[in-house]
Amino acid sequence: MRRTLLAGALLAAAAVVVAAGAFAIQQSGSRPAETSDSAGTPSPVSPGSPTPIPSPGTTDSSQAETGEADTGDRGEGIPSGAPAPAPEETPPGGTPPEGPPPEGTLPALVSLPLPDTATAVGSIVAGFPAGVIPEPPDSVVEVSSVATEGSQLQAALSGRTTLTADEVLDFYRTALAELGLSDAPAPSVDGSSAIAFTRGNNSVALTVSPIEGGCRYVVFGTFTAGS
Questions:
Q1: Angle 51-57-60 (CA atoms, 0-180°, nearest 5)?
Q2: End-to-end alpha-carbon separation of the chain, Å?
Q3: Do 139 and 157 meet the contact criterion of CB atoms below 8 Å apart?
Q4: Would you write out the chain's pLDDT as a tens digit for each of its 227 residues?
């Protein structure tokens, strides 16, 4: 009788253990998974729930990290924030202004062969470069000369004219400017005016002095002959 009761008690205890295990397995299968939020508090996530889809107009985190953005109307291949290309400027009239002609395009002031060295009193000496150093109007030549060495030519002219000193200065400014020589004031003695003309290796010095009834002038030029 005692053995029968002991066996029944053991069977009843085993049944309780099996029932408790089955209940625990059922509870663990129905419990939702837990995730932690930013504060560390677990938040339930239902099994099988879909991943949230960002609303239109939001920027994906990968785009924010790489700096890429939708180009939209800006055109493809232009990164966000890049400056727009500056439009090409067109000068007034559609063509750029032209500068002065290069030195090599101007004709030589004197050419080979050069004249022999000589001097003339009261007239223009033979071989004098009258095309570069012309006589002022209404003038009387006192002395003229030329001197040469290799490709170098020196020419001098002195005389007097009924023109004023300013008129003689203007005469040579105009004549030599047409040949491409630029002018600048030069030192002179009291009562006189002087101008220096230059173009490359060529130069002309002019000095004028007022006299009664006009002025006296002296012109001295140094030139490099072209072939």
A1: 55
A2: 151
A3: no
A4: 444 444 444 444 444 444 444 444 444 444 444 444 444 444 444 444 444 544 444 444 444 444 444 444 444 454 555 555 555 554 454 444 444 445 557 899 999 999 999 999 999 999 999 999 999 999 999 999 999 999 999 999 999 999 999 999 999 999 999 999 999 999 999 999 999 999 999 999 999 999 999 999 999 999 999 85
Whole-angstrom CA distances from 153 to 60, 78, 132, 149 are 83, 66, 12, 7
As a dihedral over the C-alpha atoms of residue 154, residue 126, residue 206, residue 188, rounded to 10 degrees, the angle is: 70
Residue ranges of domains in the chain, CATH in brackets: 120-224 (3.30.160)
Residue by residue, what is the 3-state secondary structure of 46-98? CCCCCCCCCCCCCCCHHHHHHCCCCCHHHCCCCCCCCCCCCCCCCCHHHCCCC
Buried b (16+ CB within 10 A) or exposed e, 66-79: eeeeeeeeeeeeee
Residue whose C-alpha is closest to residue 151's, from 203, 204, 201: 201
Q: What does each C-alpha distance from 39 to 33, 45, 73, 142 come to in angstroms?
A: 17, 16, 42, 112
Which amino acid, one-letter code, is at 33? A
